[in-house]
Specification:
By secondary structure, the chain is of the alpha/beta class. It is 45% helix and 14% strand. It has an eight-stranded parallel sheet with strand order 2-1-8-7-6-5-4-3. The protein starts with a helix and ends with a helix.
Length: 274
């Protein structure tokens, strides 16, 4: 199955819109893992094994691995998820954005080296910087649209239309992706949970296009408002990400069990509003 098919299957089979973000910070690991050369892999593997039946996807953030020189552990983790939990897609959160020739190399890195099922991409440099990722039709390309960070409004809220027909930049991105860039049916958008009004606006523009929604949990996004603003008519359409609240539910040896408890609570809370 391609990325979108796998995502649809996971939404149904796991009855879940929850995406668990994998942002491993060794300083927050339980004491028994600290100092181990494979600590990042072991920590993330335990989290994924404990939560795989509760999620629609996993989202490792590449910076947390690269900063620790743990790219080999990232490769091993994605291979483990594919082998142990087939059908659960892996989104590599890399937010790449560069000219076409460089983007071609990034696409090889993400899709061939790491074997990720999808990537997050910055659309700021336009269509030719996104095309190398779209050239992998079975892979997902998830473009930043309305991000959850406070500074996102600096650019994303600019009017790129006219006084008579205003259009914010994030609305233009949503429209372009849904109407022109999604020829292979592989695209999705990032829209932050801290802005439910904008989630609803993006959903209005893009129809059933999947939305990756960061910002619940530690960032304080409202689950009910997020789901009601962004769900599709069949109660799906969302990958609602939670990272720190699940990963660091416990700093003891029971961290994986604690992560499962919080993931289950989060999934069920999301489902209450579907």
């Amino acid at each position: 199955m391609n990325f979108i098919q796998s995502l649809n299957a996971a939404w149904t089979s796991n009855n879940s819109l929850l995406c668990v973000g994998l942002d491993p910070d060794p300083a927050k690991f339980p004491a028994h893992l600290k100092g181990r050369p494979d600590a990042i892999f072991e920590f993330c593997k335990s989290i994924t094994d404990a939560t795989a039946d509760l999620v629609c996807c996993f989202k490792p953030q590449i910076a947390y691995f690269a900063a620790q020189r743990a790219e080999d552990q990232l490769e091993a983790l994605i291979a483990h998820i594919h082998a142990r939990h087939p059908g659960i897609p892996v989104i590599l959160d890399a937010k790449r954005g560069d000219i076409g020739s460089t983007a071609e190399q990034y696409a090889v890195e993400i899709f061939e080296r790491y074997q990720a099922d999808a990537i997050t991409v910055n659309p700021y440099m336009g269509r030719d910087s996104v095309d190398p990722y779209l050239a992998y039709p079975d892979k997902g390309v998830i473009l930043l649209c309305r991000t959850s960070n406070p500074g996102g409004s600096d650019l994303q809220f600019l009017n790129v239309g006219t006084a008579e027909q205003p259009e914010k930049l994030y609305e233009r991105v949503a429209r372009l992706v849904a109407s022109e860039w999604n020829k292979n049916g592989q695209c999705a958008l990032v829209v932050g949970a801290t802005f439910p009004v904008e989630i609803a606006r993006v959903r209005e523009i893009v129809g059933d296009l999947p939305l990756l929604v960061p910002g619940i949990g530690a960032q304080g996004g409202d689950v009910e408002a997020t789901v009601q603003a962004g769900r599709t008519s069949n109660g799906c359409g969302l990958m609602i990400n939670s990272s720190r609240a699940i990963l660091y539910a416990s700093k003891q040896e029971d961290y994986a069990d604690a992560a499962r408890r919080v993931a289950l609570e989060t999934r069920d809370t999301i489902n209450r509003y579907r």
